[in-house]
Amino acid sequence: MNPYYIYFIIFFCIGYLIVTDSSVARLFVLLTELVRIQYQKTKWYIQHSPDNPLVKFMIHRRSMKIAKELMNEFAEKEKKI
User: Fold this and answer.
1) Which one-letter DSSP state was computed for residue 52?
2) Is 28 within 8 Å of 18 (Cβ atoms)?
3) Per-residue pLDDT of the chain (81 residues; tens, 9 = 90+)
4) What pLDDT is attached to residue 47?
5) Domain limits of the chain?
6) What pLDDT, on a 0 to 100 scale, did the predictor assign at position 79?
7) Distance CA 39, CA 35 (A)
8) What burial class does residue 28 get, using C-beta atoms within 10 Å of its C-beta: 0-12 exposed, 13-18 middle, 19+ buried?
9) Is residue 2 classed as helix, strand or coil in its secondary structure?
10) What are φ and ψ of residue 70, in 5° steps?
11) CA distance readout (Å), 60 to 8, 48, 72
């Protein structure tokens, strides 16, 4: 038996249960929301975790940019005095 038929039978059974039983439909909606929220949490953690070397580099780059801007600003103030 082809695996496509097995997948089709599984999805058909799940679809039938969702259409016929409202509690199964609600469960399916809640599970999809749970998966979406977990994905967003994982994505946020990867993008903002200081353990990630790319995030460390971006924080360092932003800090150096702000430091240069402040040094230029202080140098301009010293010239005026």
Assistant:
1) S
2) yes
3) 788 999 999 999 999 998 998 999 999 999 999 999 999 999 999 888 888 888 899 999 999 999 999 999 999 988 887
4) 87
5) 1-48, 50-81
6) 85
7) 6
8) middle
9) coil
10) -65, -40
11) 51, 13, 18
